[in-house]
Design goal:
Shape: globular
Number of strands: 14
Oligomer: single chain
Order of helices and strands: HEEHHEEHHHEEEEEEHEEHHHEEHHHHHH
Strand content: 5-15%
Radius of gyration: 24 Å
Structural class: alpha+beta
Number of helices: 16
Length: 483
Amino acid sequence: MGAINGKAYIERIDSLNNEIWLDGKKVEGPISSHPVFKGIIREKAALYDMQLDPRFKDKMTFRSPETGDPIGLSYMQPKSMGDLKRRREMMEHWAARSFGMMGRSPDYLNSVLMSFASCAGFLEGKENSYPQNLVAFYKQAREKDLSFTHTFVSPQVNRSQIYVETSKEPIAAKVVDVKPDGIVIKGARLLATQGGLTDEVLVFSVGKFLFNEDEAFAFSIPSNAKGLKFICRDTFIGGSSPFNHPLSARYEEMDSVVVFDNVLVPWDRVFYYNDGEVAEEFIKRSSFHAFAKHQVVTRQIVKTEFILGLAQLLSETIKVDGYQHIQEKVSEIIIGLETMKALLEKAENHAAIDEFGVMRPNVIPLNTASAVFPKLYPRFTEIIQIIGASGMITIPTETAFHSGIRPDLDLYLQGATRSAEERVKIFRLAWDLTMSSFGTRGMQYERYFFGDPVRIASSLYNEYPKEPYVNVVRRLLGITDEQ
């Protein structure tokens, strides 16, 4: 089959009839027609269309090593520097199509699955581990161009380090039975972005589970598996009008709690289970962080470019671009953009073949970017708000411009360089990006994309090779041994 187009994606998702709950009601009928989901499904379909568009096909696909069919480039296991950069250029095209707003474009989890499969050799010989299943499933996903959501966060009942679950019914998803035909999962996981809008749910554990080995596993199951349900948060779509809600009408991805009600995971879908050591070490030893962050930083750069463009357009529209304090603020965005670009470039230039024969980007610059961006993004949104000032509030609707009040709007809401309608469009975009429920969710999303920023910083501290710099200071002081 190979790479699919948007029509095939929509037909496949509609046919699954996944169990999705929104506002206390089970969603019925084709999901692609539902007002809450149709915007993001349409935009995601547009990404798939690019794969087979003659203008982009060579940039978006590579030839399957097994069938010769065109395959989405995000599934490619890079073997050279050229492969790595080709993957990044493909991801730039997809990110540009959504202005960096789609945090879970297909290339993110395609890259995650690819990274897992490329390091499957680590699981060889380990108890309750099935590397052959991981490799076989990766090939299946690659050849069918499957789409994924994923979940690895347990419900936040009690976040203390010594918490032991005492509920009679499992809260955090765990293995409750092992049967001849697979493992049985019961409980819940949080924050499956686009949950119910994909072919598959990729489920894996991050870190060591000191008290609950039965929570340490990795597998993938179809989104319509028996006993699997997606409970959605409230929608952040303000309305269907692209004039009034230029971003939320298109890119509201929806987040969901994934409930496993005695879900049977067949053995051929199990990658490992009931082993905290494997769960911890596999994530560390695999190229997961390198390739996941390579995709994320690429998207975040595109998003920052969009923010820079919006900040400058706002400034020019109301003629504040000549003020030094505005130039200083816009320069903050430029500095952030160039910093992220430099870190991504360094990660690629310092890439190396890993122990599994894959060209892995250097993770230290990517970890640095992951520690920097959660601080940059809230400041970017603040800068947009400051430039827009009260104009962020005076934003009438599309309907108002088609009413008898329009002459007043044209007179009083015009910009220095734009008509009133164009000015309001620009300011509504700025509001939707930074002040609407969609915009504030986006800020929280970027702030916690890879988890708690403090833990990210701590991880960077612990993994960064500091000793060479300490030795320089020792040499100056004539200190030869650690005390």
